[in-house]
Amino acid sequence: MSGHSKWHNIQGRKNAQDAKRGKIFQKISRDLYQAAKAGDPDPANNAQLRLVIDKAHAANMPKKNIDRAIAKASGIGGAKFEEVTYEGYAPGGVAVMVSALTDNKNRTAAAVRSAFTHAGGSLGASGSVSYMFDRKGLIEILRDGLDKSEDDMLMDALDAGADDMKATEEKFQIFTDPSNMTSVRDALQDKDYELDTAEVTMIPQNRTAVPEDKVKQYSHLIDELTANDDVADIYEAGQLPEDAE
């Protein structure tokens, strides 16, 4: 029994690590797509794309994943990719939005619907949950190794044109109008800040507590969506119990 328990614990940690790695790769893939879409798909002529590729390499992201994300933006291979958003409710009534990049909307819609169904959630119509989110620019700066007080960071963020800032033990989260995110990012980089995140995203207006008996299903939904190559991002309003993290 002890051997089985040890294997189970190790397997559990491995699954958690794999899920976390999958979410990191998913985010980098989206950043690669956006950088290539906004500029030249050739990194030699696109400084922002080179930065994201360096970040992908640092995260040990496979080359095929990097190439696939850039190909989606550039139309390499003749495939035409579209951006599609799905909305629905996870177990416990938690609002979830799924952003996808796909060359086959029927395939992607079926896979997303299946993920919600498997987890005991439901896919809704367009507009069913999007009103619960605000579109904002988000810039994150890790506090580790940063010699800045919260007040000083706030002043620098406001000077750069940010709207608001939230500080946690691990990082500073700086919020901007979506149209100002790039200029605020550039201003902070000019001040030699190293940014962990700089993106336009969807922020939930409120968090919904996930019932303890729904945590496993909720996590399964997020993991299944994350594992889908077509899914570019997941915006969810769930708040997990502390002991489930």
- Please give the share of residues in helix: 40-55%
Number of domains: 2
Looking at CATH, the homologous superfamily of the largest domain is YebC, transcriptional regulation domain
How much strand? 15-25%
The parts where pLDDT drops under 50 for at least 5 residues are none
**What is the class of the largest domain in the CATH system?**
Alpha Beta
* First-to-last CA distance: 26 Å
Spatial order of the strands forming the largest sheet: 3-1-2-9
Task: Name the overall outline.
Answer: globular
Structural class: alpha+beta
If you consult CATH, what is the topology of the largest domain? Alpha-Beta Plaits
Q: What is the tally of helical segments?
A: 7
Report the count of strand segments.
Answer: 10
Rounded to an integer in angstroms, the radius of gyration calculated over CA atoms is 19 Å
Order of helices and strands: HHHEEHEEHEEHEEHEE
Mean pLDDT: 86
Taking the sheet with the most strands, its summary is: 4 strands, antiparallel
Identify the CATH architecture of the largest domain.
2-Layer Sandwich
Organism: Limosilactobacillus fastidiosus
Family: Belongs to the TACO1 family.
Region (Disordered): 1-21
Protein name: Probable transcriptional regulatory protein H5R63_02370
Sequence-ordered SSE layout with sheet pairings:
Elements: H1 2-38, H2 47-58, H3 63-74, E1 82-90, E2 94-102, H4 105-119, E3 122-124, E4 133-142, H5 150-160, E5 164-167, E6 171-176, H6 181-190, E7 197-204, E8 208-209, H7 215-226, E9 231-236, E10 238-239
Parallel strand pairs: 8-10
Antiparallel strand pairs: 1-2, 1-3, 2-9, 4-6, 4-7, 5-6
Helix pairs in contact: 1-2, 1-3, 4-7
